[in-house]
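Case study.
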Amino acid sequence: MLSLLIKKELKEIIGSSKFVYSFAVSALLILITFYVGAKNYQINKSQYDAAVAENIRSMSGVTDWRMINHKIFLPPLPLASLVSGISNDVGRNIGMQGRGELIAKDSKYNEEPIFAVFRFLDLNFLFQIILSLFAILFCYNAVNGEKERGTLRLVFSNAIPRDTFILGKVLGSTIALILPLLVPMLIGFLLLLVLGVPMSFEDWMKLFLIIVTGFLLFSVFINLSVFVSIITKNSATSFLLLLVTWIFFVLVIPKTSVLIAGRAVNVPLIDELNTKKNQFSMQLNREHFNSLSGFKPANKDNFMQEFQQFMEKNNQAREEKTKSFNEKLNRERINRQEVQHAVALNLARISPSASFSLAASSFAGTSLNLVSNYREQADNYQKQFAKFQQEKTGMTSGGGGMMFVIRTDGDKKPPEINPAELPKFEFKPASFSASLGSGLIDIGLLFVFNIIFFAAAYLRFLKFDLR
Amino acid sequence: MNTILNEKKEFPMLEAVNLTKKYEDGLLALDDVNFKVHQGEIYAMLGGNGAGKTTTINIFLNLIEPTSGETKINGIVTHQQPLEAKKHVSFVSENVMLYPEFTALQNLDFFTRLGGKTNLTKDDYRQVLLRVGLQEDAHSKKLKGFSKGMRQKCGIAIAILKNSPTILLDEPTSGLDPKAGLEFMTLLDELRDEGKSILMSTHDIFRAKEIANTIGIMNNGKLVMQRSKAELENADLEKLYVEYMAGYMEEVA
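After joint prediction, the assembly is written out as follows.
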């Protein structure tokens, strides 16, 4: 009996002209998403390769490792083209020095602000906006529509248990709407391969999880629609109610959560921090200059060398103080920010759409974790780079200190540096297990939303007036 | 498909016993209604809007439960064993809509399987559709393009295919043109001859008199009159109907 009801839903939905048009639009958008994503990846990759090459080229002719203008770059992530998250807002390069604070610059939206106006078409947009509406469009009258048509009376003139009917309704609608969408998704996967997006096994696993999470969101809206079609008397009312709910889930709740968190948790402005950092730096500079008067060379013939060592020692001491002070300020700000993020995200999770968005960006490596991950890896690289500079020159660059370079080779031109010797910066995206860990709570929530709405629909239908 | 029930059942196939329905808002929709429909009989329930005809049918189908009393299908109390009772009944509503995106054959296939008949072929469906008067070229067309008469034919085809011993009809000829109405009545006659017990609610006094073995008139939830065809032979049913509906006359059914 259940299979008969499921098959009927399949036939009814797939055989309708409404489905043909909606599916055609959705399938087209899915394919465009994958195609545009793959093409964007190619563009970003070529820009990245060019930037890396330019970085190396800028070092040609340089003879001193302390004089290089070295940058590290955030490589494009294959999945970021499909779920952009915050990847386009993150600065893609960091000017690297042996010491000093690292600042990421030149985000995609900063460089090409036109893309920030309408943002990119990606899987997040597709599932949150298009497919959730697709689910509503097909299920808003799942039960009250049958009552309006009179088919409900006819169906229940037969020996059909109510629970079997509602189970068949939900399962049939879910299968009917999800199965056909798998076809353009699979073609999209092929597009990634054909267009040469280098997807690792982990990337495929993550993409699979994104799609599964997307369909979980999709089924939340199916269950919700069936529930609303039971509690409302006519299909026009259920459609209106679902649209209002959709607006709240997709637009109002996520944006309001951020606003509330912004009000509730005060995070110091970056300008405030910079002012404090500058004041502290100026204070250290004064101390530093004052300390110059205390310099007394042990051997006057070796004045410059001793002076250089003195300056290096001073610079290092100042760097440690600056670093410690800045780290303290940064840590305080980050702690406040983390509280603010937690408040915003947990409030937003009232909405299944927000849960999906958070899970998908976690799996794609484009969640808020991207910033901390990038910062952490850049910090680690800085240590490597400082060590490299030390080995090559005995000094480290940056940090705002003065540096005296003594040439002891007369007019003889020193050999050029070999940029290939530089330690390589290789950004490692979050591992599959780490991504899964951070997205698990949202997948769990989507399961809970499904269970709640299905249980509500199921229980209400047992008391539904079938007349 | 023309199965004639050979064994005449002694007990009524459809029965309402002290049937009362009072809604939560206090409306008394049915007030102690009693009637019986035996095998091979047609019972016509006449009455105006809100008389309680559809409520009676809804209780037979267990779409609502009675406040007191009971309905029985083939001896089974419907609100106690609804699923078992429904195996013995077919239903045709006033305005058969079916699934508009399905063809006539697909609708028949779905509802016949739902009724428990899983071994029928497309040829069986076609034969029944032809029997009820639906032209062959319409069999594979979607219902959304069908007229009310065509949909009604599909509805009765579904009832025939279920091959249950009882049939409930909720104002089946309402809105049909005279030709379609006549064809429908001829079909009911055939079904009765096959031994089906039919309970039909209708506004159509003349067709009711023509076809029914027993006629009951309902007014404000009460069965105010119940007469056999023989009793009504020389009576002016229209006059009786108007008088009972106006409340001039009342008898205990």
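Observations recorded in class. The radius of gyration of chain B is 18 Å. The first strand of chain B starts at residue 14 and ends at 22. We will return to this complex in the next lecture.
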